[in-house]
Model the fold of this input.
Amino acid sequence: MNIAFIGCGDFARNFVPLFKLHPLVGKVFVCDLIAERADEYSKKYSVETVASFEEVLKRRDINAVAIFAQRHLHGPLVLQALSAGKHVYSAVPMASEVEECQQIVEKVAETGLTYMMGETCYYYPSSMLCRYKNQEGFFGKFVYGEAQYHHDISHFPANFRADKRSAGVPPFFYPTHSTAMLLAAANSYCKRVVAFGYEDTEGDGIFEKGVNQWDNVFSNSYSLMKLANGGTARINECRRIGYKAPSSYVSSFYGTKGAYQFSNAQHILTKLTEKGVDLQDISDDVNPVEMTRHKDETDFKQKVANHTWQWNIFSPVQKTEMDRLPESFKQNATVNGHMASHQLLVDDFCTAVFFGSLPPVNAWRAARWTIPGLLAHQSALKDGEAMDVPDCGEPPEK
Done:
């Protein structure tokens, strides 16, 4: 696979080295509307530049693209790439329009090309733990769960905040850091959603009408989702909130027979018994191993809340996924990120392209995790009006 990066901003820096390291990748190219950015990448990572997206689509020696452009451009760029016969790795979100999500699914089904949304949180330890335990039947039938992406705008990159036209994107236009965690663990999808928004009052020119391109005033949005399995999910997307880390997490997952609860660095499982519950502290299994080594230090909780040990270090619950990574990744363990999810993402995409298989975060799943957020924003605009969520169905067997 020869892959071209579309967009040379802050986030793509984490992935160019990983694609270069993967044994199934031949060459990596970079492309940006601002030529100086692509040139800087070219020098730093020893990759070739391509002058334009249009040229990338025409090049027959490039058979895949990695979309790292601005969030609201993902849908149109992905559709153009698929139409040109390119496999697509796209940063989140899938798209900003319901119709674009549906069109991507249709185009993938039509062409048989590989599409994968780079959802880091699918591989987060809290989500994986709940997913595995639910598959084992530990929880019984799923009844209720909570997940959130609490990322204060002050912690976003300075160049992101400086772009006033785009920085005030509606929180639920970027929903998958929370929806993916819970919906994947519950093995279900959203059928109906209600939501409310918090109208921002900070006056810093981000979440204000007449400033951002959506006239969006919501810095925080909160939803309840009715799932196809009969359960209910509470999903939050907050950008003005006094909290730092972990920014994305499953805080609770309840079934008829058992439950999971999390706060800061403590992870607890409970199992229903005739006398009450059996409680098990599984923090050492879910936290990154380096975090666990420091758990007896007096400032441990303070450091956890400020994002220490939560970047490139695996946790024990991720071990089954770690074992299948190529040696080139294992030998460069620090080239990773977001709860050690980056290596898993890249490997899943590369192997899916090579073998012609469906990646875990395929187009059908990406649509099920993106569309509910887009409808949640519409519900919030209508002061909590319930919205039906269209479904693109199950992915095919192959």
Summary: The CA atoms of residues 193 and 225 lie 4 Å apart. Residues 121-355 form a domain with the Dihydrodipicolinate Reductase; domain 2 fold (CATH 3.30.360.10).
